Structures are given as C-alpha cells and as structure tokens.
Model the fold of this input.
Amino acid sequence: MKCGIVIVDTGPLKTLAYADSLTLLLAPGIPVHISDMVICELRNGQQFPGNIKALEFIESNMNNGLDEIETGVPEIAEKLKALRVDPGDESIRRIIDKYEEDSDGEYALLVSEDEKFMRTADPKGHTYIMTTRPFLQELEKRGMVADAEALMQKAEEAAIHAGETPGRGQLNRGREWNTPPIRNVLIKPF
Done:
C-alpha cells in the first residue's frame, strides 16, 4: 500500500507552525502533498505569522519530501465564488476524486481542520481523514513526539499571542476526526 499525506486546508499547517513543529509532517517518511489552493490561501493571509512560517517551510522543503498537488482551483476561484461554490471545498472534492480515479492501491491521508469539510466530506475508498490532534497522537504512539497535547496547547497559546484566534474551534477536542477509508477500515494512516 502506498500512502501520502495530503494537506487540504491551512489549519494543520498553521497549528504546526505555531507549535514550531512543521517538520513533524515529514516524520512518518511518506510523501507530503499540499494543495495548490492551500498555498494560495496561505499567501493571501501573510499578515498572520503562522502563514508566513508555513510558507517558509513549504518553500524550503518543496521537492524534498513535500510537493504541491495541482487542483486547478486557484485559477478559477473567482468564478467559483460567483457561482457560490467555495474554492477550498472544490479543491478538496477534486483531491478526493483524484485518489478515487487515479489510485491503484494508493491512499491519501487527508489532514484537515476545516470543520465544514469534516461535516460534509464524502470520502471515497482511498482517503483517510484525520485532524491535527490525532495526527500528533499517532506520532506520539510511534515515539516521534513526546507529548502531542503539549504541542496542541503550545500552538493555541502562540496563535492567540500572535493575535490570531484559532479558527473555527479546530483545537477543540470535540471536533477531532480519525476516519479510515470507507471500503477498507483496516488501512492505517501511516
């Protein structure tokens, strides 16, 4: 089984940036893909220190364990908005469809903190959905992180100190997801 981590919204990157732990995305030793829409959204929000840290991490690790996954959505974002289609949601839908259509034994671990996505996601048989806290807890189980909860607390405090309220309650324990692919519940994230 081949699996890649796919970052489908800015939340995980910002959380890990504020925890000074972006390199943990590379810790499992599997490819990390970041949606072109996520990169676009980070660039559009450079007033936030977490976005700047995330962009610096992406630039310094591009093609070195990390790459951009093209959805084509940034180029048509304004048209989508005019049609009342959220560009971020469309980007995620295209990623899920890509893994269903193009994958032959390849799985995607979609890491997200977008509460709306979590509520409305229509994952296919080749996508595993996880929020940041369970991702860090999995790393803790594997001995790659000393204390996942301490990292989440550090991220929340740093975000607030930087003047950015953690978005949509993504650091709230009640909104965590750790969902295996629908047609293969035996698949482990990494």
